[in-house]
Amino acid sequence: xxxxxxxxxxxxxxxxxxxxxxxxxxxxxxxxxxxxxxxxxxxxxxxxxxxxxxxxxxxxxxxxxxxxxxxxxxxxxxxx
Length: 80
Prior knowledge:
It is a single chain. The chain is 81% helix and 0% strand. By secondary structure, it is mainly α. Helix 1 (2-19) packs parallel to helix 3 and helix 2 runs antiparallel to helix 3.
């Protein structure tokens, strides 16, 4: 369920970044902030469990950042 939610957020951010690049930064940062809080909470588990619990949040945060930047980059390549 979490994978589908992150995928949906990435698609929405990519579309938003393509059509309204400046206004896409705030939702992107908010999503990354939320995922960062989950990563920090998961990292509080002892030992290797902390790394295992925080990894999905870190990789999701990276995916959100990449989808937003890809939408802005695609918008910048348009000829008009």
